[in-house]
Amino acid sequence: MRGRLFVMTGASGVGKGTVRAKVLERTRLFYSISMTTRPPRPGERHGVDYYFVDEAAFLDLVAKDGFLEYARYVDHYYGTPRKPVERALARGEDVLLEIEVQGALQVRKRLPEAVLIFLVPPSLSELRRRLVLRGKDTPEKIAKRLARAEEEIRSAHLFDYVVVNEVVEEAVGEFLAILKAERRKTPYMEEALRRALSRDPDLESELDEIERRL
User: Fold this and answer.
1) Structural domain that includes position 18
2) 88 is in an annotated binding site
3) DSSP 3-state assignment of 189?
4) Is 10 annotated as a binding residue?
5) What percentage of the chain has pLDDT greater than the value 70?
6) Which residues bind ATP (predicted)?
7) How many domains does the chain have?
8) How confident is the model over 44-96, as pLDDT tens digits?
9) Which tens digit of pLDDT belongs to each residue from 137-174?
10) Distance separating alpha carbons of residues 191 and 134, to the nearest angstrom
11) Radius of gyration of the chain measured on its C-alpha atoms
């Protein structure tokens, strides 16, 4: 059976990367690495966190229809290379994307069966606190991110699920619960239903013998 596509999104600084890393530690998913034109942050590695490329290389892949989705966000491009995702789904693997809001909605148009999960902060003030304490952006860029975050949160009704990332472990637990519920939907439980209707000849004989003795 074809795999299931899960898409995580949310405002910058909401903790998508932290939640994603903990989810991947606890369940089996094919994680699709995104491509971006922004420079690596300290500790980020090419081919692990993102594929870091220049704008010319990114736009060349756009022209070749090489992305499942792509978007421009805070002066940089982000996109999901299409082929790795399609191959994993065809192998029957469940796939996780961690992408921007615009990109998630593009995926919904291409693959309506995708499950979209929106990660939100407890409040915009808390999101601002996290961005300030992260110390990676200028006040001007933080203001731009907050304005974009407010706009994005207003589109959350277009998504299947909303997870509030106030306490990381609780958010991870809720995310895993969503994965489990989606995997228990009837089309994905065909093998379990076949087993439920099966009979074990040895056990049946044993039960027949017990009934005769009663």
Assistant:
1) 5-186
2) no
3) helix
4) yes
5) 100
6) 10-17
7) 1
8) 999 988 999 999 999 999 999 999 999 888 789 999 999 999 999 999 999 99
9) 899 989 988 998 999 999 999 999 999 999 999 999 99
10) 47
11) 22
The percent of residues above 90 in pLDDT, for the chain, comes to 79
CATH number at residue 143: 3.40.50.300
| Widest pairwise Cα distance in the chain | 83
- How far is residue 213's CA from residue 170's CA, in Å, rounded to a whole number? 53
**Cα(24)–Cα(93) distance, integer angstroms:** 13
Mean per-residue pLDDT, 25-42: 94
Residue 180 lies in a domain: yes
Query: In the structure encoding, which two tokens stand for residue 27, read together?
Result: 């369940």
Residue 140 lies in a domain: yes
- Give the Cα separation of 184 and 196 in Å (integer): 14
Is 79 known to sit in a ligand binding site?
no
Asked whether residue 50 is assigned to any structural domain, the reply reads yes
Is 104 known to sit in a ligand binding site?
Answer: no
135 is in an annotated binding site: no
Q: Is position 78 within any domain?
A: yes
* Calpha distance 23→179 (Å, rounded): 10
14 is in an annotated binding site: yes
Q: Where are the beta strands (DSSP E) in the chain?
A: 5-10, 30-31, 35-36, 51-52, 67-73, 76-81, 95-98, 115-120, 161-164
Whole-model pTM? 0.84
Q: Report the pLDDT averaged over residues 117-140.
A: 92
Instruction: Return the closest-CA partner of residue 103 out of 21, 10, 174.
Output: 10
Task: State yes or no: pLDDT of 11 exceeds 90.
Answer: no
